[in-house]
Hints:
The structure is a homodimer. Helices cover 20% and strands 40% of the residues of chain A. Chain A has helices at 85-97, 151-159, 166-180, and strands spanning 7-16, 21-28, 34-41, 45-50, 57-64, 69-73, 76-78, 99-100, 105-111, 120-126, 130-131, 144-149. In chain A, helix 2 crosses helix 3. The relative contact order of chain A is 0.18.
Amino acid sequence: MKKFEEKTIQTEQIYNGKVIHLQVDEVTLPNGKTSKREIIKHQGAVAVIPITQDNKIVFVEQYRKPLEKSIVEIPAGKLEPGEIPEVTAIRELEEETGYTTNELKFVTSFYTSPGFADEIMHIYMSDKLKPMEKKAALDDDEFIEILELTLDEAEKYMKENRIHDAKTNYAILYLKTLEMM
Amino acid sequence: MKKFEEKTIQTEQIYNGKVIHLQVDEVTLPNGKTSKREIIKHQGAVAVIPITQDNKIVFVEQYRKPLEKSIVEIPAGKLEPGEIPEVTAIRELEEETGYTTNELKFVTSFYTSPGFADEIMHIYMSDKLKPMEKKAALDDDEFIEILELTLDEAEKYMKENRIHDAKTNYAILYLKTLEMM
């Protein structure tokens, strides 16, 4: 849908980083006036809700510099250019948790912050996990701790704001709906 | 929690915009090595799930320049500095939908993209809406259309990716759980 389309007059490239790219677009508004839009370009991300055989959810705790604290999240990582999300999902699951799977179920996808970023998050679930014989290597700037929690424990973490991000809050609500069915 | 803390060595200010601020922090990792973190600072946002007396959900459709398309979302807006989220919630509800309320229920809050941004999203619900006598004014660069949908219709929009962002997907899943209770 192109309703209320804002046409680009010109684009100013501000920053080209490892994770994000920032540009500022000057646009024509539907009323003919102009405005500026600050836009973060991101290659997209994939998360997995990993459920063990004894019905626990596998989370990772990691320090998030923008928040200046560590939070507990479902495993996730960035899409590589041209990569299909299922491949990212399995790679991040293997690297971050030591489990692998050959069964992924698509749960949802959403733009994380459409007002200023094009980042899309794809979420999958797997309840067919297999422990890997040899754990895959993390990126060299990643430090994480693995936690296996029941859904009740995860909800408690959410109340305490130790679980506190869009994909993980969504995952917990999603598992609640499965439990209610 | 400060587990795996990354201490700042120095901060480079890159861009200071109307909506976002970009800085790059050089940090010390837990293993003593250094790395860079690209960080978006954002003042935070608030969304409302507005439910009418005849049990419809009030959405707004607007063009999202980062996506180069218009999507359908629950009403939302940025926190002003020092503002409590309930005030933002009512202002955005009034400006965007023409309804007001004096009953808000807190639903959840989450960081939208904790890997690179500190933006937090607070979500409220109100099923005690009153039409305003005189509709509040939108910001002068905002163009929106109001839609009142049943939950079934909203789910159909989600399948078609016309509803496709974190807060709105969460809201629909949340309303599903209320329906299941």
